[in-house]
Amino acid sequence: MLFLVPMMVVLAVVAVFPVVYSFWTSLFDLKLTRPNRVPFVGLANYSKIFQDALFWESAARTAWFTVMSVSAIMVIATLMALLLNEEFPGRRFLSAMLLVPWAIPYVANGLMWKWIYDSGYGALNGLLYQLDFIDRYMVWLGDADKTLALIANAFVWKEAPLATILLLVTMKSIPADLYSAAKVDGANVWRRFLHVTLPALRPGFMLVIVYETMMAVRHFDLFFILTEGGPAEASHVLAWQVYVETFRKLSFGTGSALAYVMALVTFVLAWSVIRTVGRKL
């Protein structure tokens, strides 16, 4: 325990103290535009948040972005894990290349997709135009109906590789005897997947859903780089609202309260997934 003291001190300074202090800040009307007047308001910042129509709109967009992203990640990761679980030439190379999107920093990933979606010279416009799917270059990120889905696409491209590896590791732990017994009982490929693979993947599914949900709910980088909450607040999610309140309006009290609301929502979602998906593990 004595050797653990330095680590505990570091964690207390860099992790515990900021969390506690930010909650304390959320109880005050702290604005850097008037730093000498910081009245204690209790839970008034939280009440103000829940009475704000923009908060509920941002929460709805965050929920929709999370559902789109996590659903796509789960489907793609499951299919990729099934593929990589088979023996075929080039499997090891494909497994290594799969990690490249995940290894790219989020800022670089955002800039790459911003160039791909560019209305003047983007690769997406060029490809679709050459294939005659469009007759003119489109302003993709300027369309409020498509913006959230386009950002979700960039998020999925970045996160799907890690989810694939997690599911693949879980898949590798399934005893081969289960598949042999299923074959003896006459189960085809689909039935083996349905009755052997899927039930055994529950721990991996739970881990991926919890992790990716947490990442999606609090994701900020792509929204900042690609759209900055636009167009017309079409991508104004909770993480962006925390940034706007804290660093643009300089209202640290409200920003801290918003951050705690996000943390509470994330905790509830993670707890719900663990209680439902993991209850029979």
Structure commentary:
- By secondary structure, the chain is mainly α.
- It has one domain (43-277): MetI-like fold.
- The protein is 71% helix and 0% strand.
- The longest helix is centred in the first third of the chain and has 32 residues, at 53-84.
Write the layout of secondary structure elements.
Blueprint lengths: L4 H21 L18 H7 L2 H32 L6 H13 L2 H11 L6 H8 L16 H26 L3 H9 L4 H12 L1 H16 L3 H7 L10 H11 L3 H26 L4
Helix pairs in contact: 2-13, 3-7, 3-10, 4-7, 5-11, 7-10, 7-11, 10-13, 12-13
What proportion strand?
Answer: under 5%
Compute the gyration radius: what is it?
Answer: 23 Å
Say which CATH homologous superfamily is assigned.
Answer: MetI-like
CATH level 3 topology? MetI-like fold
- Unreliable spans are none
Distance between the termini: 33 Å
- Helix percent band: over 70%
Q: Under the CATH scheme, which architecture would be assigned?
A: Orthogonal Bundle
Number of domains: 1
Characterize the main sheet. none
Summarize the structure.
The chain has helices spanning 5-25, 44-50, 53-84, 91-103, 106-116, 123-130, 147-172, 176-184, 189-200, 202-217, 221-227, 238-248, 252-277. By secondary structure, it is mainly α. The protein has one domain (43-277): MetI-like (MetI-like fold, Orthogonal Bundle), CATH 1.10.3720.
Throw out a few tags for this protein.
281 residues; mainly alpha; MetI-like fold; 0% strand
